[in-house]
Amino acid sequence: MFAVIKTGGKQYRVNAEDVITIEKLDGDAGAKIEFEVLMVGEGADATIGAPFVKGALVKAEVVEQTRARKVIAFKKRRRQNSKRSRGHRQHHTVVKITDIVAG
């Protein structure tokens, strides 16, 4: 059975025991999280919510808080002796899906 959850402005298709990396959520390693479900089921008998499926829940556990690879934003204005380099690292949360409850 799979479910489609929404978090951080994105949608993720998850199964039980999946480990996914999502936008940063509050909580230390070991914290329990619950997600609202947009769609749950298996194949043709999947239930689609409007916008969420009533009674359906995805339970997860925080594995760790991490940061993504550094993205370099480099700007150079040729012949102007002008350049600027900036770096950015996005914060992420690694989550393990423990259970999918289909209401």
- Order of SSEs, N→C? EEEEEEEEE
Overall pLDDT score: 94
Domain count: the total is 1
Report, as a whole number of angstroms, the end-to-end distance.
13 Å
Key descriptive features of the protein:
103 residues; elongated; mainly beta; two-stranded antiparallel ribbon; single chain
Written account of the structure:
This protein is an all-beta fold. The model has no long low-confidence stretch (mean pLDDT 94). It has one domain. The chain is elongated and about 65 Å long. Strands 1, 2, 3, 4, 5, 6 and 9 form a seven-stranded antiparallel β-sheet that branches. Strands 7-8 form a two-stranded antiparallel sheet. It has strands spanning 2-7, 10-15, 19-23, 32-41, 47-48, 57-67, 71-77, 82-88, 91-101.
Briefly summarize what is shown:
The protein is mostly beta strands. Helix content is 0%, strand content 63%. The strands form two sheets. Strands 1, 2, 3, 4, 5, 6 and 9 form a seven-stranded antiparallel sheet that branches.
Question: How would the blueprint of this fold be written?
Answer:
Blueprint: E1 2-7, E2 10-15, E3 19-23, E4 32-41, E5 47-48, E6 57-67, E7 71-77, E8 82-88, E9 91-101
Antiparallel strand pairs: 1-2, 1-4, 3-9, 4-5, 4-6, 6-9, 7-8
